[in-house]
Amino acid sequence: MGRTPDTHKTPSREQQDVDEPDEWDKRIFSTGCAEENAKLTDCYFDKKDWRACTAEMESFRQCWRRKGNEERTGSRS
């Protein structure tokens, strides 16, 4: 009789670490613009040219302003 694979294994410590948000992720989530940031970085990853991602950049900038991050971080956009 064959043995069925064990599909209920506990993830390895390395796997658990990858799934947990790192400091960068926590900072992005705290801005309230994580979705816009993801779209922007995905665009750049796909196109390798920031100039091709102007719509995504503008969406991120608008979110940044709307969420009050300029005051919170002392940044200007």
Automatic annotation (TrEMBL):
<feature type="compositionally biased region" description="Basic and acidic residues">
    <location>
        <begin position="1"/>
        <end position="16"/>
    </location>
</feature>
<dbReference type="InterPro" id="IPR039870">
    <property type="entry name" value="Coa4-like"/>
</dbReference>
<dbReference type="GO" id="GO:0033617">
    <property type="term" value="P:mitochondrial respiratory chain complex IV assembly"/>
</dbReference>
<protein>
    <recommendedName>
        <fullName>CHCH domain-containing protein</fullName>
    </recommendedName>
</protein>
<dbReference type="GO" id="GO:0005758">
    <property type="term" value="C:mitochondrial intermembrane space"/>
</dbReference>
<feature type="region of interest" description="Disordered">
    <location>
        <begin position="1"/>
        <end position="24"/>
    </location>
</feature>
